[in-house]
Design a protein that fits this description.
This protein is an alpha/beta fold and 176 residues long. The chain contains six helices and five strands. The protein has a five-stranded mixed beta sheet with strand order 1-2-3-4-5, sandwiched between helices. The protein binds zinc ion.
Length: 176
């Protein structure tokens, strides 16, 4: 990636990403494992290097950061106000890549699920969120549906848990 973003913006954004193997993701995996699901991590042989692969269920799971993967209508999918064109192009690329990988995986006969970072209770005590998603994901694995998206199903849960309104429709600037 060309370095057109100033250092301050970049470090702020990198700090908000969470990254692979975030605590929330590890908690999710722990619950899945406890339920008896066995998986492979970050399988580079598959398009997009899926975060969690469940060979027995011919299913994969992407744990997506909301910012980079542009979670629709999510406050974490903000766009930095500087270098707008750079970000727009970057985001378009990411979304297009995700779409292509998903399509190829489905063509290969894999079932595809996406768990959004915010649904895992980003930056909060996240065990309850992870437990709930593990349950939903487990049901999906054992069911027959081709796709699963943690989406905003868990927003209302988060709202109750934190007792605050869910600001999911509003666009926010990244925190300074
Ligand atoms: Zn989100």
């Amino acid at each position: 990636m060309t370095d057109t973003v100033d250092l301050k913006t970049r470090s702020r954004i990198m700090a908000s990403v969470g990254g692979k193997n975030s605590k929330a993701e590890r908690t999710l995996r722990r619950f899945l494992h406890a339920k008896g699901f066995r998986y492979i991590l970050h399988d580079r042989r598959l398009p997009g290097t899926p975060d969690i692969v469940f060979p027995r269920y011919r299913a994969i799971c992407f744990v997506h950061g909301c910012f980079w993967h542009r979670h629709p209508d999510c406050k974490h999918a903000s766009t930095p106000s500087t270098r707008r064109e750079f970000w727009d192009a970057k985001f378009r690329q990411n979304v297009e890549r995700d779409r292509r990988n998903r399509y190829i995986l489905l063509e290969m006969g894999w079932r595809v699920s996406v768990v959004w970072e915010c649904a895992l209770g980003k930056g909060k005590k996240n065990d309850a969120h992870a437990r709930r998603i593990a349950r939903a994901l487990g049901d999906w694995l054992q069911g027959s549906k081709t796709e699963f998206d943690s989406g905003s199903n868990f927003d209302s849960f988060e709202e109750r848990a934190s007792d605050k309104p869910t600001p999911c429709k509003e666009k926010e600037k990244p925190e300074e």
